[in-house]
Specification:
This protein is an all-alpha fold and 246 residues long. The protein has helices at 2-24, 27-61, 65-90, 93-110, 121-148, 152-239. The longest helix is centred in the C-terminal third of the chain and has 88 residues, at 152-239. 13% of the residues are buried.
Length: 246
């Protein structure tokens, strides 16, 4: 109890010393200090609001990021398969160049998928897709080698296997995409509720800070202008030859 009373007394003494020191400043210094602290409070409000909006946008934007990444991977695989089909039909430099380009990007994306079997359904699906992807890359490479050597038997064998593997791979990606969509929809709902709470709290806090800033400016300016008003009133009385004033 005594310690808390001492702390309150010390804080009160400190605030009195602070206001006393503020009153001893020149009028110009008081105006500058008031302006500085007012700008500081308003800047804090702006920074706080920006942070809340950025956090909200990031949270909502990341809700369906896994779906976007998986769609991008499926597009790369589709481009790879399309370039492979074109090469098998026309055997042009442009088609084989596109094939290797999209193949490299697909292999890079496949490395981000689950690398080990898992009891979790989503991660197990990722593992299956990764294994099918590696198989697709290997079969398509064998198909390209067979086409370059004009080996008709290998072309027929690897062409059928490559298309079959691509079909399985595409179905698995679409299935995983649906699982991602369901889990992301739940995450989005949860993030939306927490974001709304955060926004409401932020609005209340900003309103309180704004009220505090207005009160701070009002009282600070009043402390500066009140003595000036007294001096002005005395000057008017002296001008009216009323010298019975302090």
């Amino acid at each position: 109890m005594n310690s808390s009373k001492n702390e309150k007394k010390e804080s009160s003494t400190f605030s009195k010393k602070l206001f006393s020191r503020f009153e001893n400043y020149s009028i110009r210094s008081q105006i500058l200090v008031t302006f500085f602290f007012s700008c500081l409070i308003l800047a804090f409000i702006v920074i706080f609001l920006t942070h809340i909006l950025r956090t909200t946008m990031t949270t909502v934007g990341e809700s369906y990021q896994t779906n976007a990444d998986l769609d991008n991977y499926l597009t790369l695989l589709s481009d790879t398969e399309s370039a492979l089909e074109t090469y098998m039909q026309y055997r042009t430099f442009e088609s084989i160049d596109k094939y290797f380009h999209f193949l490299a990007l697909s292999e890079e994306n496949a490395e981000t998928l689950q690398s080990k079997p898992s009891a979790i359904l989503v991660q197990q699906k990722e593992y299956i897709i990764r294994q099918l992807s590696m198989n697709f890359f290997s079969l398509s490479g064998n198909l390209v080698a067979a086409r370059r050597s004009n080996n008709a038997a290998d072309i027929e064998k690897y062409y059928a296997k490559t298309l079959e593997c691509y079909s399985f791979l595409r179905d698995e990606i679409l299935s995983l995409n649906m699982l991602y969509f369901k889990s992301n929809a739940e995450a989005y709902k949860s993030n939306k509720e927490s974001t709304m709470i955060l926004l409401n709290v932020s609005i209340i806090m900003m309103f309180l800070l704004l009220v505090f800033a207005i009160l701070f400016i009002y009282f600070s300016i009043s402390r500066i202008t009140f003595p000036l008003a007294e001096i002005s009133a005395v000057a008017l009385k002296v001008a009216d030859r009323n010298f019975n004033v302090e």
